[in-house]
Every structure is written in structure tokens, then in C-alpha cells.
Amino acid sequence: MVSVCQSGTGARRSCFRQKFPGIAGGGCLKILFDANTPAPLARFLRGHDVVRADELGWQGLENGALLDAAENAGFDLLLTFHASSNARLGPITR
Please, what's the largest Cα pairwise distance for the chain? Predict the structure, then answer.
């Protein structure tokens, strides 16, 4: 796991506080990196909880199934990177 949050005293780790409209209490985001997202990007997301899909055993999931798994696990953001998508980006289909 790429740890960008501080260890907490409960079941949940506490993150460095930043103000994000729409996030309860301005807290950290739980971010999932898919297999193609460059891991070094995590250092720019300091203050957030970043997990790679392969760390959860999700490396074989297709986009729709990965999105479903991320939603069910409580992730706020799925970050994906596809080098072949240089012309046009569209929504992930399920």
C-alpha cells in the first residue's frame, strides 16, 4: 500500500486535513489506482489514502467490474491511465 495518511488510533487512519468541498469534514479521499496508473503519482496525493488494485487482488477485473468493486469497497475515486486513449476519453462502461 502506498501510505499517504497518518496512522490513527482507530480502525480508520486519519489523513492530513485539506478542504475538499463535498467531502464530509474536508477529510481525505480514498483513491484506487488501477493497474495502469503510474505508482509515483501517489506522492502528489499526500493527505489521501491511495491503494493499488493489485494490492486488493483486483488486477484481472475489467473496467466495469473494477468500478463496481471500488464503489462497494467505499472508494471515492478510481484513477485509471490508458496510454492508448490519447485521442478521446469517455466514461467507463459496465
Answer: 46
- List the grid coordinates of 33: 489506482
Q: Report the b/e string of 30-57 with b at 16+ CB within 10 A.
A: bbbbbeebeeeebeebeebbbbbbeebe
Per-residue pLDDT band for 1 (boundaries 50, 70, 90) equals very low
CA 15 and chain centroid, separation: 14
Interacting residues of 7 by C-beta distance below 8 A, sequence separation 6+: 13
Domain boundaries, the chain: 1-7+28-48+61-74
Backbone phi, psi, residue 43, to 5°: -65, -20
Q: Residue 23 is placed in which grid cell?
A: 467531502
